[in-house]
């Protein structure tokens, strides 16, 4: 069946930019940024659905499941960014949070427009998933065949599914278990969903992963205590976090991090409780990976035990 793409909200003309080619550079910039602001406000209006997706993401990861972001073009690249950022920021297993982009790895750097029309490729990209896993489909228009194929395959395989789209209320809710439909409206440059649709989508993906990781205990206050210190900047950040939360100077923090194999949370427990590395790890495992509980100043580990989550699966 031929789709009527002209009827899509993301393909409509924006009345605010009909004279775009007559505007000054400054006026174009102001208009673009103001439309981005409106798009983020639209994203805030679907916060309840974003929270449901974040909870599902956390549940899946905590129980040992795998998560795949699936998208094409800009949407696919946003999924790649989100999957790539989780390991260094939150210490997650890169094999368990990954991305599938239409056209494969080469499409990250060079557009392969026709690849988005291959629903079978979308299905193949998530064919190894099953019960307990999660597919997060990303499609500004909601009708991208590659994404639809991935979501349909997720349903066939018994995996959970989320769709992030900017098509507003036109989306059929049956396409995924959770539909996050952001009504960003027409783009400044008609059909160019890399603009405000991309900005709103990036914000929502950030919110899903960050809220999920907070729930999983990978933060303490607003600090990333499960980061992987793989660069000079991250090593410095880890050292400062251990020094602050462990109440030690940065030289001792560096020694504790070295003894803990770079595990920031482990080094913090070693500093605060004055225990060796093995006991610090045991405390964290008993607390479901939640630093606050491991330090004896929170109850999150109790919450996770009540949920029946094996703490060893959260790493």
What is shown here, in short?
With 315 residues, the chain is of the alpha/beta class. The protein contains twelve helices and five strands.
Task: Give structural attributes.
2 domains; disordered C terminus; Rossmann fold; single chain; 315 residues; alpha/beta
- What is the name of the CATH topology of the largest domain? Rossmann fold
CATH homologous superfamily placement of the largest domain: Glucose-6-phosphate isomerase like protein, domain 1
In quaternary terms, these chains amount to single chain
Structural class: alpha/beta
By CATH reckoning, the class of the largest domain would read Alpha Beta
Q: Topology of this protein?
A:
Blueprint: H1 25-44, H2 47-62, E1 67-71, H3 73-90, E2 97-101, H4 119-125, E3 134-138, H5 145-157, E4 160-165, E5 178-181, H6 196-215, H7 232-246, H8 250-259, H9 264-273, H10 277-286, H11 291-294, H12 300-306
Parallel strand pairs: 1-2, 1-3, 3-4, 4-5
Note down, in words, how this protein is organized.
It is a single chain. By secondary structure, the protein is α/β, with parallel strands linked by helices. It folds into 2 domains: 9-215, Rossmann fold (3-Layer(aba) Sandwich); 232-314, Helicase, Ruva Protein, domain 3. It is 48% helix and 8% strand. The chain contains 12 helices and 5 strands. It has helices spanning 25-44, 47-62, 73-90, 119-125, 145-157, 196-215, 232-246, 250-259, 264-273, 277-286, 291-294, 300-306, and strands spanning 67-71, 97-101, 134-138, 160-165, 178-181. A 5-stranded parallel beta sheet has the order 2-1-3-4-5, with helices on both faces. Helix 1 (25-44) packs parallel to helix 6, helix 2 (47-62) crosses helix 6 and helix 9 (264-273) packs across helix 10.
